[in-house]
Structure prediction request, 96 residues.
Amino acid sequence: MQEDPNTLIIDVRDSADGRLGDRIPGAINVPYGNLLFAADNETPQEWRNPRLEDRSRPIVTHCVVGPLGAIAPKTLQDMGFANVSYAVLPALPHPF
Prediction:
C-alpha cells in the first residue's frame, strides 16, 4: 500500500469487540453501523465524523475477519466517496 499522509484507515468493527488491539496502526474506529450517519453530510452535525467530510480523501476500511471491511467501501462509495478500498490483515489493500 502506497503511503499517502491523507489516507484515513477505518476499523469498522464494533467498539465492543474485545480484539480492537489488532487494529492497523493509525486507524480510527468507526463501527460499520455508525458509518451510515457519521459519513452522511445530511445528518445533524453532532452525529457526523469530521474526518469523513472530504469525499475525495483516500479511505481504507478493515476488520479482522474481512466482511465488514469489504462491504464498508461499497457503502461509502454509494454515499459519494471516490477513493475507497479495504484491507485484509496484514494491511493489503483491495480496490473496490
Q: What stands out?
A: The two ends are 14 Å apart (CA to CA). Strands lie at 8-11, 28-29, 59-62, 84-88, 92-95. Helices lie at 32-38, 67-78. The longest helix spans residues 67-78.
